[in-house]
Specification:
Length: about 190
């Protein structure tokens, strides 16, 4: 897949993409693209946990460990080799557990036995069909990051920790934060005489 500059999704785009993947569609060339719940769930989990798609396709229910009254994800990131450990909300764990039960997937089996490339190709078909541009699997991770940033007082350090970036500068670039902050600062600074 071409290395496109991906962007975060709007809520409407996210809902439309997942709905279209779940329902299937007929392309303009009369090619039937079947519904694919596995890809819809994988992308939903990516958007909710902020993991890279390579880590999502290798995810097992057994990677989520009960720790007192919470659930904790314990994986080694495929891209960086870093250990990743953080809380998984109960709703997300229940969603995955239900998906696994519905599809007869054991705790040690991959939840999404599919390749990264297959997810990317399917998403490209969907976004082309919907006429959406600059969207790839990484858009779901970016949407997670932007949502966390916007809903937590623009805390770049929090987003950096959740994405496991090495520096805040990497996270700022990832979020395209600097330009927004410059514009906000200029707008707040205006001091015109009465």
């Amino acid at each position: 897949m071409a290395n496109i500059k991906t962007r975060a999704l709007t809520e409407e785009e996210y809902s439309l993409i997942i709905k279209t993947i779940r329902e299937g569609f007929l392309t303009k060339d009369n090619i039937k693209v079947r519904p694919n719940e596995r890809i819809a769930v994988a992308l939903t989990i990516q958007l909710n946990l902020g993991l890279r798609i390579g880590d999502i396709v290798n995810l097992r229910l057994s990677d989520i460990v009960k720790d007192g009254s919470r659930y904790r994800l314990e994986i080694k990131e495929q891209k960086t080799g870093k250990k990743r450990e953080f809380t998984v909300p109960q709703e997300i764990y229940s969603y995955l557990q239900s998906y696994a039960l519905d599809n007869s997937i054991g705790p040690k089996q991959k939840l999404f036995d599919i390749t990264v490339r297959a997810v990317q190709k399917h998403l490209k078909l969907v976004t082309d069909y919907l006429g959406l541009e600059n969207i790839g699997t990484h858009s779901f991770r970016k949407t997670f990051a932007v949502s966390i940033y916007n809903n937590n007082n623009y805390n770049v350090e929090l987003v950096r920790q959740l994405l496991q970036h090495s520096t805040v500068a990497v996270t700022q670039h990832y979020l395209s934060v600097q330009q927004r902050e410059v514009e906000d600062a200029l707008a707040k600074h205006i001091k015109l005489p009465s």
